[in-house]
Amino acid sequence: MAHLEAQKHISPDSGFPITLHPNFNDKIKDYVPAEPAREQVFPEKDRASFADPEKKSLFSVAKRVDLTESVGTVLENLQLSQLSPQQLDELALLVTERGVVFFRDQDLTTEGQVKLFEHYGALDRHPAQKDVRHVVIRGSREDHREILKYTPWPSGDFHADTSFEINPPSYSMLRMEEHPEVGGDTAWVSTYGLYDTLSDAMKKFLDGLHAVHTSRLQYDTILDLWGVGPNRAPIDSHHPAVRTHPVTGLKALHVNPGFVTGFAELKKYESDKLLDFFAYHIHSADDHAVRWKWAVGSVAMWDNRCTNHRVIPGTYEAPRRGIRTTVFGEKPYFDPASESRDERQKRLKAEKTQNEGKVAASKNLTPA
């Protein structure tokens, strides 16, 4: 917390730092971003759309191990650096279905990771990212509960990567180069599952709302806490609170505590109460969550359109350093005709039962 301007202004009464309004914090007030605001882009068709639904090529070289019923899969016995374009497409499809896929003991280099991820589209760039191809991700060893007293962004909470952008990222990949033996885990939660577990009345209510995703809070925090100048001015985007995934066609909750500050159609106290509920809903979703213990050489690839994630803070002293690449996704949209994952599973089960009944009936009618 040493960078925080509040640390320079100590209350003579309490002995604790005094929070400054951004207009009176010179680091924030006087900063001028170097880059213009982004315009909407239109990415090419998602590579997962070209994949074999059965993923035969991918599974011919990898063993699949699902970590939970809802989210998270490990692929064993493969090297990402050796996958063919067809296998990369099938990997993307698996990620859209399982939310996040993990790999251990990978031989990828930074150059190899960048080249691999360019297969999935145009590389995106985080507002604090200086290298045009990737961003360095470190751990969190400070008390994020204490930091939140002095800077407005809940940096330790669940989020989808830069969900405030007009075109938020679709896929992200994180490859760990340095990591402590204990601590620094990352947790993911399925937003398919978060939508499924809502009541029907709440689903109907949310289907018509727009969530306010903002980078304003992160912008101030990047300048004040991180001591880094953001590339772009802060932005607010009003995205559907429930989005339709372009590959799976499934509904996913598009709300996260990291970047969502309200709902466009609601008044402030209404939004605040709904956000309080979602904070509980997300943090209590152990049946739709997975926690990954990193090691050097581990890789995770996830889909920001159907997961939220957070790094677990800790007090470890060893360095934690990962390389993250992301690609531009489509502008989020909601299709009223789309279905939830639970609805699809029930529909497919009913259709299977019906078809089996027809087959049995036809056998009974067949002459001996």
UniProtKB/TrEMBL annotation:
GO CC aspect terms: cytoplasm
Keywords: Dioxygenase, Iron, Metal-binding, Oxidoreductase
TauD/TfdA-like domain location: 66-324
Record has Membrane as a keyword: no
A family per Pfam: TauD
Top-level division of the source organism's lineage: Eukaryota
Cofactor(s) in the UniProt record: Fe(2+)
Biased composition (Basic and acidic residues): 338-355
Gene Ontology molecular-function annotations: 2-oxoglutarate-dependent dioxygenase activity; metal ion binding
Region: Disordered, residue numbers: 331-368
Family: Belongs to the TfdA dioxygenase family.
Name of the protein: Alpha-ketoglutarate-dependent sulfonate dioxygenase
UniProt source species: Podospora appendiculata
